[in-house]
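[recover] target loaded
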């Protein structure tokens, strides 16, 4: 079921400009709880989910004139906040509440399921490769009462899926991006560093499972690494120490910026919220800015 506002709450979409070192408001709503902005590859629009549906709006919209336009999902089940835009801009891939991944062609030709039926197994989408050929997702399964999450790669043209992690620790936020060597990596967050819930840190690994690198090692709980297309930056969501999972409506959630080699990071902005702020890649295609969502504090 789609997430809703607490009484009196609102959501605000922001674009943070790195050169200006400042954020501008794009739009605010107290009617639609939108989440997880993507940027279209041509740089003209932002895509968000809300109420189990998908919307777009101009990236340069002013708050007083911003209009969210619904994208036709073709009758698939409600979606969650895991969605990505293909590199050529022709398709949005989404995670639906039935546990499957769907391709939504923007020419209106109708959706198609791209994930495979695997029984009691759920797919949570986070990334698409630079060539558009492979999706990175988190697979959720169960070992008795224990929730198990791992990083998977799904070739869209057919062929075997690749399971990149299988270590008993909770993993999330798998996303493709360039590393300091210029090659493509898969970035993700995992609790493997602390070995316990409430201590997620950031990692990257090659798509063949080689060369695992830990990027952060601090007292905060770090989620959803988003590498910039330029390969210069990684932006992520950082929760207060001891936070379990990636909950909503949390104070002192920080949007932080670091480098693909895990160099010294810095706080960009401190927000109220967490879940929905930037669950998926939200960089402008020229890496000059990124988008995120904040939520007003509870009354």
């Amino acid at each position: 079921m789609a997430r809703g506002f607490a009484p009196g709450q609102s959501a605000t979409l922001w674009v943070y400009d790195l050169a200006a070192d400042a954020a501008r408001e794009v739009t605010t709503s107290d009617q639609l709880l939108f989440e997880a902005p993507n940027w279209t590859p041509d740089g003209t629009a932002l895509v968000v989910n809300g109420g189990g549906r998908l919307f777009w709006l101009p990236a340069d919209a002013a708050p007083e004139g911003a209009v969210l336009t619904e994208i036709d999902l073709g009758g698939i089940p409600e979606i969650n906040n895991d969605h990505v835009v293909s590199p050529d801009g022709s398709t949005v891939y989404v995670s639906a509440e039935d546990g499957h991944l769907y391709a939504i062609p923007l020419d209106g030709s109708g959706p198609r399921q791209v994930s495979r039926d695997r029984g009691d197994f759920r797919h949570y989408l986070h990334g698409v490769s630079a060539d558009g050929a492979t999706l990175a997702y988190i697979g959720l399964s169960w070992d008795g009462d224990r929730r198990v999450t791992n990083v998977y790669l799904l070739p869209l043209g057919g062929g075997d899926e690749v399971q990149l992690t299988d270590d008993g620790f909770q993993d999330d936020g798998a996303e493709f991006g360039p590393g300091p060597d210029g090659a493509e990596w898969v970035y993700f967050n995992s609790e493997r560093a602390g070995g316990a819930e409430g201590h997620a840190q950031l990692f990257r690994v090659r798509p063949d499972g080689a060369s695992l690198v830990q990027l952060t090692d601090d007292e905060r709980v770090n989620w959803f690494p988003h590498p910039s297309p330029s390969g210069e930056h990684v932006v992520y969501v950082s929760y207060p120490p001891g936070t379990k999972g990636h909950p909503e409506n949390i104070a002192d959630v920080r949007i932080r910026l670091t480098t693909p080699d895990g160099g010294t990071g810095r706080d960009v902005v401190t927000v109220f919220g967490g879940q929905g702020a930037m669950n998926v890649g939200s960089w402008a295609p020229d890496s000059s800015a990124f988008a995120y969502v904040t939520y007003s504090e509870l009354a």
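[recover] notes: The chain has a mean pLDDT of 95.
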